[in-house]
Specification:
Blueprint lengths: L2 E6 L9 H10 L1 E6 L2 H11 L3 E8 L2 H11 L8 E7 L3 H9 L4 E4 L4 H22 L2 E3 L2 E4 L4 E6 L2 E6 L2 H11 L8 H8 L11 H13 L9 E4 L3 E4 L5
Parallel strand pairs: 1-2, 1-3, 3-4, 4-5
Antiparallel strand pairs: 6-7, 7-8, 8-9, 10-11
Helix pairs in contact: 1-5, 6-8
Length: 239
């Protein structure tokens, strides 16, 4: 299966630059295009791309904010972020790297150089993916590659497939075992844009879906607990 690259296009020129198209072909990347940040965020949750590229972008405060928002999305924290910029300075490059970019390339650039830079990013992403899979928290193991959760219980193992949103939510809890996480915190870090969410109880729906997959009895949870008036907490069940 080819690796995916999510390309956030410049709205003023909504076409993939020829040099990026050639470099993607050389690297065997499957391109997916987004015209704005909300669309890119939604696609990122579904695609879990290896690489996210801001193509032909002038470095502006708005782009810096977009990069910051993309980096907050838990589901794609291992995706590499590449800025292919126009009209930028060395100071802009520093700001982009500080905002979370993994590489910042100034146009004009050759397809050969861009391909080499992309290959370097893919190598670093491979190393990170290897280190991160699986994630363990007590009797739970989260397999990023297959988007599955494995539960060990009384010597037996059970695996369940997760949706992208379920995966992101469970990963967020597993990174913070024992911590009470409020609905607002989960919305702010895992849903984007928050302003488009009509019913904030959507978190409760996904909590229930996770309980159906990780609890012996989702109506009487022993792992993913409700702290009334505070939020939710992932704990290890009592023996």
């Amino acid at each position: 299966m080819p690796r995916k690259i999510l390309i956030l296009l410049n709205a003023a020129s909504p076409r993939v630059s020829p040099v990026l198209a050639e470099a993607c072909a050389m690297a065997g990347l499957e391109p997916h295009l987004a015209l704005d940040l909300p669309q890119a965020a939604r696609m990122a949750f579904e695609l879990r791309p290896t690489l996210i590229c801001f193509d032909q972008q002038p470095w502006t405060t708005a782009l810096q904010d977009s990069l910051w928002q993309i980096n907050r999305l838990q589901n794609i924290r291992s995706s590499r972020k590449l800025i292919l910029a126009t009209g930028a300075t060395l100071d802009d490059c520093v700001l982009a790297l500080e905002a979370g970019a993994d590489d910042f390339i100034l146009n004009p650039v050759s397809a050969r150089e861009l391909h080499a830079r992309i290959k370097a990013l893919l190598r670093s992403q491979d190393a990170l993916s290897h280190e991160d899979d699986p994630v363990r928290c007590g009797t739970l193991q989260l397999h990023r590659e297959g988007m599955e959760v494995e539960i060990q219980h009384r010597g037996a193992e059970q695996r369940s497939k997760l949706s992208p949103r379920e995966f992101s939510l469970l990963a967020y809890f597993m990174d913070r075992p024992g911590h009470v996480l409020s609905r607002d915190e989960l919305l702010e870090n895992l849903w984007y844009p928050v302003g488009e969410i009509e019913d904030r109880r959507v978190v409760d729906v996904y909590i229930w879906r996770l309980r159906e997959k990780i609890e012996d009895d989702p109506t009487r949870p022993s792992r993913l607990l409700t702290r009334r008036g505070e939020g939710y907490c992932l704990v290890e069940p009592k023996a």
